[in-house]
Amino acid sequence: MLLFASHVKHGTRTIERNRPFKRKVTFCVQGVISPLLSNLMLDVLDHELERRGHRFARYADDCNIYVRSRRAGERVMASVERFLEKRLKLKVNMAKSAVAPPSQRKFLGFSFTGGATPKRRIAPQALARFKERAREQTRRTRGASLEKIVKELSRYLIGWRGYFGFCETPSVLRALDEWIRRRLRAVVWKQWKRGRTRFAELRRRGVGVDLAAQTAGSAHGPWRISNSPALAIALPNAYFRKTLGLASVADSHAT
């Protein structure tokens, strides 16, 4: 990543109660304006790549160039590095640069599947960040009501879906929905706490006597129980979607 930063100090003299003092004001230009500065600097690179006939995609200082072979990739990478250093006086971050198949690289959170007909997929790093955020919001020790957890989580899911719903691997999105519902079932099970409360809640929600007793008396933890038939009956998908208003990352029409 190319970081553009400028620190400008400007000194002024003012008078307060007949006592002069010097005031130092520091103006700092950092990450917020970095994409704009990147576009201004790298517009020259865009024109150069177009002149050479390369296929490429660039956003701010993140650029992918697509070629037919690894040998061509290594040649182009060396050439572009020389162009950036000599023409624009910029240094390429080699730790974040590589010649590799598209399936092994990411761009703006996306990657591609392998095979003869590649599909646009969510990069593994982006999925890991999604799960980390969802885990934080669905911690069983939060002490928040299920309604509050779902409301806060849904705001994040809607925004995330608005960006990553563009992927061409819907099975991944459906799996994330299932994973989120399982985490919420684990939250509910933890909140019910005691065996008698769990049995009563399961029975109230339509679970048979034997299955409710077996599940309520189980020694397994909340995560294991969250995948049980009893909780699938007591807390079906429709309960989260219709009753609590849980957003879906797989269904763009869900609320």
Any key phrases for this structure?
255 residues, alpha+beta, two-stranded antiparallel sheet, 10 helices
What would you note in describing this structure?
- There is one protein chain.
- This protein is of the alpha+beta class and 255 residues long.
- Helix content is 50%, strand content 15%.
- It is built from 10 helices and 6 strands.
- The chain has a two-stranded antiparallel ribbon with strand order 1-2.
- It starts with 5 loop residues before the first strand and ends in a 12-residue tail after the last helix.
- The N terminus is likely disordered.
| Beta content | 5-15%
Mean pLDDT: 86
Number of DSSP E strands: 6
Span from first to last CA? 37 Å
Shape: elongated
Q: Can you count the helices?
A: 10
> What is the alpha-carbon Rg in Å?
27 Å
Structural class: alpha+beta
Residues in helix, %: 40-55%
Strand order of the largest sheet: 1-2
Topology as a string of helices (H) and strands (E) = EEHEEHEEHHHHHHHH
Main β-sheet description = 2 strands, antiparallel
Low-confidence stretches: 1-16, 23-30
